[in-house]
Amino acid sequence: MLNLNRKQAVLAGVLLLVFAAVKVAALLWWQNRQPEITPVAESACNVHAGCKLPNGAEVKFSSRVAANEPFDITLRNVPPQTAEVFVSFSMRDMDMGFNRYKLLRQADGSWAAPQIRLPVCVQNRHDYLADIHIGGEVFQVGFTAE
Fold first, then answer.
1. Which of 99, 95, 54, 94 lies closest to 77 in space, CA to CA?
2. pLDDT above 80 for 88
């Protein structure tokens, strides 16, 4: 009986090692598939007045963005072949959990997401980063919420 338990323990150990190796390989594969993020200088970008991204698109948030109130995002001059646009929010050195808002193409060619909300920061910080995904490109814009 002791041999059977030892064999089971060895098998369980081997299976755990295989699982860990598969998990690490999947994580590396996923990380390599993520597009490179292009930061946009905060001094050159005011998302409330409108900000031109390096690809020529312009992003504009509602004039007032507060951490606990809904606001709108609009993108104009998005390349016409773009199939998908979405935005997610984070903070420097802080994971804000999964939050991803899909922008929808409007009749005038712009993309919009009405009434979205920022993730809440438990440390009461207001320095957010918006990762704007346009097709296969990602632009990161910093801004301050009220």
1. 54
2. yes
Classify strands 137-144 and 100-105 as parallel, antiparallel or unpaired.
unpaired
SS3 100: strand
DSSP category for residue 94? B
What b-and-e string marks burial along 74-106, b requiring 16 or more CB atoms within 10 Å of the CB? Answer: bbbebeeebeebebbbbbeeeeeeeeebebebe
Global confidence as pTM: 0.72
Instruction: Supply the pLDDT for residue 8.
Output: 84
Strand order, beta sheet including 58-61: 37-40, 137-144, 127-134, 85-90, 100-105, 111-116, 71-76, 58-61, 51-52
- As a whole number of angstroms, the distance between CA 42 and CA 1 comes to 68
